[in-house]
Amino acid sequence: MVIILSARHRLIVGVAVAAASVGALVAVQYHRLGLTLSHYDARGHLVVARRIIDNLTPGWQQIGAVWLPLPHVLNAVPVQVDSFYRTGASAVAISILSFAVAACAIAWLVCAMTASRVAGVAAAAVFALNPNVLYLQSTPMTEPLLLALTLLAVAMLIDWADLQACRKGDPTRLIGWVFALACLTRYEAWPVTAAALSGAVWARWREGEAFDIAALRTGRIALYPALAVTAFAIFSRIVAGRWFVGGDFFVPENQALGDPLLAAKEIAWGTRRLSGPLLVGIGLAGMLILTALGLLSRARAFAILAVSLVTMAVIPWAAFVKGHPFRIRYMVPLLAIEAIGAGAIVGISKRARVACAIAVLAAVAYELRPLDASAPMVVEAQWDRPNVPVRAKVTACIGPPQRGMKIMASMGSLGHHMQEMSRAGFAIHDFLHEGNGDLWLTAIDGPYPFAQWILIEEKAQGGDVLARLAREHPHFLYGYRRVCEGAGLALYKRREGAWD
């Protein structure tokens, strides 16, 4: 047993080093191509982290209530360094580390279920060589951290649920903390946590533990994520006035609005686009095998926990049913499930494991190109790229930052542009935005005393809150004149003495 554990540890370290090395090299390549911050949400995450300290009204309230807080809290201090804020370097470092942890967790999880290191390496390779995964881990996006924490938590839970495993100490508290952190990263972790913990009760009961004892011991783990979700709900209530911010931050335009079946088809289509029909088929077959093992085999009941990761599809599915615009990025976490399924196929092959692993890797070579510039995620991330130089011309109309000068703008709509403006020397405290609370609410009634400039997004999502105010209340812009426009952005300058 000592030899097996040692071999598994070597596997995990080897996968970690390989994944981190590949991830860093790929991140450098995307930086050279200028694609690190091409996705508007990548810039938005940097703004949320930066504004916690750099703000007219700094404080914990600036963490926000739509996006979950952990990624921004982790990056809050590093991103105060201007170079990290402008390039996203500190957030990318977190993503690369998360990518390495996720690859390790996949290898560990598959090895634990199949007792095959070959299967673990094959599964990690299917995940780590996908160009869409490689691109996301080269950006400040939050999916890499979600995958790292969720996969690690499930891998640890599988070891814990396997009553035949030889372990030292009680990892209950540590597993609970990892689940809690995952639940504070992205909403996809919430259904996975519920499904995995339910599966843990099932697995321990199937292996011979009394049901009430299994439920009690699993409940000790569940306490941590439950407290994390409750704390976030309270925080949201304080900051936003609601326990949870719903779907009113987007314009319903998905054709799957109100159609659950069509929403499911969109998810299936997106997943195939991200990898390929062959790999999707292999992954699906592997997950079906794990489901059968978990339900039919007492000795392998813990395999059902890996299937809990499929519930990451619940959040995008529900969003599409509510009309959220289709984004292929929401299907990227499902590629981890594909990799685990592929590893399961290799693991159950027993005497043909090496040959099966070679076949799986051949499918990877056939369907994937790690630095594919036409990969769906890379293409989607560049939707906004043509607008960047146009918006830069609007920024140039303002000139250099001046002491005491304030620009009124909706961070919910123009957070990405605020980050772009950092290249011209602007900081978050140069803006008056929704996060400024009473100051913002007062300025909405009459911005003239508070802002020399007003930036308005007039086109995206039907226009932002300031665009609606300008349409519904023409007096809102009294004392201002329109000086620049471009890419749906309009800039207004205060006419000095207009109120004299």
Q: Roughly how much helix do the residues carry, as a percent range?
A: 55-70%
Neighbour order of strands in the largest sheet: 2-1-3-5-4
Number of domains: 2
Helix tally equals 22
Outline of the structure:
The chain has 500 residues and is mainly α. Helices cover 60% and strands 4% of the residues.
What report would you give on this structure?
- The chain has 500 residues and is mainly α.
- The protein folds into two domains: 2-381, no CATH class; 387-494, no CATH class.
- 60% of the residues lie in helices and 4% in strands.
- The chain is built from 22 helices and five strands.
- The chain has a five-stranded mixed sheet, with helices on both faces.
- Helix 20 links the parallel strand 1 (407-408) and strand 2 (431-432).
- Helix 1 runs antiparallel to helix 5 (89-114), helix 5 runs parallel beside helix 8 (143-161) and helix 8 runs antiparallel to helix 9 (172-183).
- The radius of gyration is 24 Å and the shape is elongated.
